[in-house]
Amino acid sequence: MLVYLRLLSESFRFAMNALRNNKLRTLLSLLGVTIGIFSIIAVLAAVDSLDRKITKDLSSLDKNTIYLMNRSFGPSEIPEWKREQFPNVKYDEYIYLKGAMTNTEQLGYQIFTNRESIKYESNTVTSVNIVPVSHEFIDIQGLEFDEGRFYTESEANSAAPVVVIGKEIAENLFGDFDPIGKKIRLYGQRFTVIGVLKKKGGGLSFGNNNDTSAFIPVNFVRELIGDNNKAVVNVIIFKPQVGVDMDAYKAEISQKLRSFRGLKAGEIDNFFINVFSGFTDLIDGIISKMNAVGWIISGFSLLVGGFGIANIMFVSVKERTNLIGIQKSLGAKNRFILFQFLFEAIILSVIGGIIGLFMVWIIAMILTKTLEFEFVLGMGNILLGTGLAAVIGLISGILPAVSASKLDPVEAIRTGM
Q1: Can you give the three-state secondary structure of 53-107, one letter per residue?
Q2: Residue 371 lies in a domain
Q3: From the CB of residue 329, how many other CB atoms can be counted at a distance below 10 Å?
Q4: Which terminus in the chain has less CB density within 10 A, N or C?
Q5: Three-class SS state of 181
Q6: Following DSSP, what letter does each residue of 372-408 receive, concatenated?
Q7: Residue 91: which of 214, 219, 217, 216 has the closest Cα?
Q8: What domain range includes position 213?
Q9: Which segments constitute the ABC3 transporter permease C-terminal domain (predicted)?
């Protein structure tokens, strides 16, 4: 055991000497490994951070939540020209299904509409995500409040000019003043602020951040734009009871909406029943593809890095031929020489990997502070990067190490003189 520890120590010393004596050559040889490890770990860390953020932001939503609309979350076998003819779901369909559906915990109505500007006195916030929803939305999405409340059923049904705003909007419009009860201008009319949501920071809600969103009664927008406006997308949101058979539940929605719309047997559904779990599965698929692409691209850098390590090891064997001959003439066995060069190749490669990991860590800190997005370099990715660098060093160092171990001691000494 002590022999191998000494061997490892000597290999580390030889690797450091290679770095000191041939700085440019060694660094250029390690560049491929550094870039390869940097690329792979940067992609994996970014994807892991994004996945963690999405999971956290969507944790308040039940994966069984269903979105009934004229569009599909994922690919569809129905031709695009036919899908474009599908009608928007209507408010009266929401009312009908609310009374007709069984095994339903909550059922709400939402309109996906354009972004708008909100004003308060001389302050203006642009590109605000306007979310016109029925009063059930608070229970469906699990909104949390910093202060105030959500609008009631009577306020929602009467299209009362009340609004619930995200924390970032409140800070930009009112600063340190209490926003509750203040009047803001939206759609050319005055709305009373009745609630401010808790700040989540960089959250996702179908691509929108609740911190920069404003929630208003859906009936207000219906009165403003009508029920047949093609510029918006209407959605009926279902939150089934826990433990319900999802296939049977979707079949019930389909049967009742087909009956309400008067669709005949043989006619296809002119609507889509999107389960939220399908949306998360779609995100998981995209994340997996991003990981795969990152591995493929980074693999080329690692291949180049492997050739670089092999090159520097062959040069090292050439430079130390005389020393190898002396070691063997003094009784050093072939495996001792083999392990010496293998360890040196691994150490050099790991050094390149550590440089790559350090670069990822620096960029992660910069991005976290700049984007207010928690870019996490987990211990798993650190160990993966280090292990991958060691494997590259091992593979790259095999041939040079074998060639060194097979040198004839007499010929090695004579060649090195």
Answers
A1: HHHHHCCCCCCCCEEEECCCCCCCCCCHHHHCCCCCCCHHHHHHHHHHCCCEEEE
A2: yes
A3: 12
A4: N
A5: coil
A6: S------HHHHHHHHHHHHHHHHHHHHHHHHHHHT--
A7: 219
A8: 104-242
A9: 295-409
Using the Cα atoms of residue 298, residue 299, residue 304 and residue 306 in order, give the sign of their dihedral. positive
Shared-domain flag, residues 213 and 286: no
23 and 109 in a single domain? The answer is no
Q: Write the CA distances from 20 to 16, 17, 23, 26, 318, integer angstroms.
A: 6, 5, 6, 9, 18
Phi, psi of 386 (to 5 degrees): -65, -45
Band (186; pLDDT cuts 50, 70, 90)? very high
The Cα 312–Cα 307 span in angstroms is 9
The total domain count for the chain is 2
Judged against a pLDDT cut of 70, whether residue 413 lies above it is answered with yes
Cα of 78 vs its chain's centroid, Å:
29
Q: Find the mean pLDDT for residues 341-348.
A: 80
Q: How far apart are alpha carbons 189 and 164 in whole angstroms?
A: 15
Q: Name every residue whose Cβ is closer than 8 Å to that of residue 145 and which is 6 or more positions away in sequence.
A: 195, 196, 197, 198
Q: Which residues contact 121 (CB under 8 A, 6 or more apart)?
A: none
Are 151 and 160 in contact, with CB atoms under 8 Å apart?
A: yes
User: Residue 21 domain-assigned?
Assistant: yes
Asked if 228 and 183 touch (Cβ cutoff 8 Å), the reply is: no
Rounded Cα distance between 366 and 361, Å, is: 9
Which of 270-274, 280-284, 312-316 has the least mean pLDDT?
A: 280-284
Q: Which two structure tokens, joined as six digits, stand for 93?
A: 């369909």
Tell me whether residue 208 is in a domain. Answer: yes
290: pLDDT strictly greater than 80: no
Contact 104, 239 (CB under 8 A): yes
CA atoms within 13 A on the CB side of 195: 20
Give the pairing type, strands 123-133 and 213-217.
parallel
Query: Looking at the structure, do residues 37 and 143 belong to the same domain, yes or no?
Result: no
